[in-house]
């Protein structure tokens, strides 16, 4: 029995030695990989119908979208100083107002746009065409034409142009709002004027606001390279459908740092429809300055939570003033829908039709009360922010 045990122990030792050598020198022999071909068989590589290797490609998406993306060239008159002006803003403004210190010249700029309707309507950014004396649009097929501004909405930085060329291809639109963080997106535009260019990235975040770019902010953030000249261009999904209008970048150098922002297509479509139908965008307005409730204000007002907005200012004879709202009131809800902060307040008021009546739940001196207010029309901006 002792002899059998010695033979067994020696056999086990030899097998473990062989296993150690194989695991060290040829570990692939030990992997149970169903994709590894059996001994004697040949490795087959998936091929396309044309015989090439299968490589992830977005060529079809780009081919669908690029005919609808245009380059926009604008010219406008600007005052150019004839001598170096002081850096102090007040002195600079004073010298610019004096005759003989500046000369009127034509300056050019560039951007991008998207054909959203086959009858010639083009969406772009307001800052691309702001104060332009002449606008020229170049299509991907080589055609060029002049464009006119149908209307603009500085508060979302969108503008609608009209061109008169035939056989225009409108871009397909993503309508089911299925965009998610992590989805692949493509940015198409005319960066630095080099010509139509496509860059690839993902959706980095949704619903970005408080960036100080526009009054109404609800941006798609992406790391697809967006550079000067891309403004107004298309952000499309992997099927070539429009999901946003490229608008701004975060940059310390002027070039892309991987943080770009686009206006969601749903917002852009709503602005487009209002401008085409009415020539402008109409928003509800109450004439108050809302302020977020900070932890300090929460303690000062002895509040149990930070929801709602504090009325920091009331415009005399505005809708809120006529309804009886006061500075220091805390608006908790609008039409029984709770308000989280000043952003949600502005977004809740904007879609309301002027003349409609809303019910505000207001906390005043520790007691809740209902106040009805007649919604007014938001006055247009006198200048861009």
Could you explain how this protein is built, in words?
Among the domains are: 95 residues, Trypsin-like serine proteases (Thrombin, subunit H, Beta Barrel), CATH 2.40.10.10; 94 residues, Pdz3 Domain (Roll). 20% of the residues lie in helices and 34% in strands. The chain has eight helices and 21 strands. A seven-stranded antiparallel beta sheet has the order 5-4-1-2-3-7-6. 32% of the residues are buried.
Mean pLDDT: 83
How much helix is in the residues?
A: 10-25%
What percentage of amino acids are in beta strands?
Answer: 25-35%
Shape estimate: extended
Structural class call reads alpha+beta
Name of the CATH architecture of the domain at 184-278: Beta Barrel
Major sheet size, sense and barrel closure? 7 strands, antiparallel
């Amino acid at each position: 029995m002792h002899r059998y045990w010695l033979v067994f122990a020696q056999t086990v030792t030899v097998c473990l030695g062989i296993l150690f050598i194989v695991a060290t020198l040829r570990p692939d022999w030990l992997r149970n990989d169903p994709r590894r071909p059996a001994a004697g068989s040949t490795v087959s590589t998936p091929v396309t119908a044309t015989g090439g290797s299968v490589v992830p490609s977005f060529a079809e998406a780009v081919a669908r979208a690029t005919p609808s993306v245009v380059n926009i060239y604008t010219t406008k008159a600007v005052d150019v100083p004839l001598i170096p002006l002081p850096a102090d803003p007040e002195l600079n403004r004073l010298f610019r107002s004096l005759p003989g210190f500046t000369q009127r010249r034509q300056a050019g700029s560039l951007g991008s746009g998207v054909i959203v309707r086959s009858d010639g309507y083009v969406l772009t950014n307001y800052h691309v065409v702001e104060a332009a004396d002449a606008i020229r649009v170049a299509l991907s097929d080589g055609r060029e034409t002049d464009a006119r501004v149908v209307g603009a909405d500085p508060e979302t930085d969108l503008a609608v142009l009209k061109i008169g060329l035939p056989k225009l291809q409108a871009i397909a639109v993503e309508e089911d709002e299925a965009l998610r963080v992590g989805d692949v997106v493509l940015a198409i535009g005319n960066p630095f004027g080099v010509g139509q260019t496509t860059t690839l990235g993902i959706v980095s975040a949704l619903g970005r606001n408080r960036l100080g770019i526009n009054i109404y902010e609800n941006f798609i953030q992406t790391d697809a390279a967006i550079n000067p000249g891309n403004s107004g261009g298309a952000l499309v999904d992997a099927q070539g459908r429009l999901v946003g209008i490229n608008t701004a970048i975060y940059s310390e150098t002027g070039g892309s740092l991987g943080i770009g922002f686009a206006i969601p297509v749903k917002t852009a479509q709503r602005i487009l429809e209002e401008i085409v139908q009415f020539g402008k965008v109409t928003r509800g307005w109450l004439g108050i300055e809302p302020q977020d409730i900070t932890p300090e204000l929460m303690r000062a007002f002895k509040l149990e939570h930070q929801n709602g907005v504090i009325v920091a200012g009331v415009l005399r004879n505005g809708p809120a003033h006529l309804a009886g709202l006061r500075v220091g009131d805390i608006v908790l809800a609008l039409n029984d829908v709770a308000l989280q902060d000043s952003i949600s307040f502005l977004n809740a008021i904007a879609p309301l039709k002027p003349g409609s009546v809303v019910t505000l739940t207001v906390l005043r001196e520790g007691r809740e009360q209902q106040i009805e207010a007649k919604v007014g029309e938001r006055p247009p901006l006198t200048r861009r922010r």
